[in-house]
Amino acid sequence: MEPKEKIILTGDRPTGKLHIGHxxxxxxxxxELQNSGLYDKIFIFEADAQALTDNIENPExxxxxxxxxxxxxxxxxxxxxxxxxxxxxxxxxxxxxxxYFMDMVSVSRLQRNPTVKTEVQMRGFSGESIPVGFFxxxxxxxxxxxxxxxxxxxxxxxxxxxxxxxxxxxxxxxxIYGDTLVEPNILLPENAACLRLPGTDxxxxxxxxxxxxxxxxxxADEVNKKVKGMYTDPTHLQVSDPGHLEGNTVFTYLDAxxxxxxxxxxxxxxxxxQEMKDHYTRGGLGDMKCKKLLMSVLQxxxxxxxxxxxxFEKDIPQVYEILRxxxxxxxxxxxxxxxxxxxxxxxxxxQDQALIEEQSRRFASK
Length: 366
Description:
Blueprint: E1 7-12, H1 20-36, E2 41-46, H2 48-51, H3 59-76, E3 84-87, H4 93-101, H5 107-111, H6 114-122, H7 132-135, H8 137-147, E4 152-154, H9 160-177, E5 185-187, H10 220-228, H11 249-257, H12 260-266, H13 273-282, H14 287-313, H15 316-345, H16 353-364
Parallel strand pairs: 1-2, 2-3, 4-5
């Protein structure tokens, strides 16, 4: 289906506060796109229903973190006047669309999804212990995206398999029922270092469950403490030793956050980040000096976010009101899409006057 509008949809599972991996991977870009004026509509949601699939016995965790994520959204610069912020569970039409999509995906196809495999391993599920709702996450996500006819989904590269599965579902649906749904495209971060920010411990991904995160809401002292303990180059034992950049978390973070202007303003020895890298690789530069630069860069980035969050925390009822209004807008769009889906699938029995009249004539002629 040829899209009539340029629409963004993206979101997060509210299982904890958002961290700087979320920020450079998607959140920072969302704010830029929101303010660019290039998109007709922007939908950003909290996937609380999906979060419950592996937190079913701890609903309070999800309940409490809905407000934490909302505060992070607003603090980062998302504007409810420009972006619709809503909660997944408050849009019941998503369950209906997911149900129809389940008939279009095989179990074997879900099992081959690399993102599902990774997430299953991270959470320690195995074989028959995998919750069905968690296993069918790609189907649920496809419903989230297509319900709002999103043309663009800002996300990290680990979500590409999910987007491809969504496109497969859309193509199959449209092939069977006619052009109804829109195929989305992924929008990856432009900075390669932002594609998948590693944890502070050097692990492949920053993750709340691994405890290797720097949160957007962390205090200045908390940030500095975490940076001081960050993984660097284990072979860089003496300041005079040549250092390695690959796998060095400090330099990965500097690539993601530091501009040359920041480097020049915050150091007396370098005009660009590349100059610091060159010094480190030839030897003579200690890890702590690099970490001190990263501390300064992160503080400059995070301090305005902390200040905005503190202001929104003063009026929590207003934050809930922003979410409530966003849910109303999202629900209106979802109802319109489901009308089109039911019509295409020929299950709009009571709205199809032609069907009623046809059946009336058929039975009257007996």
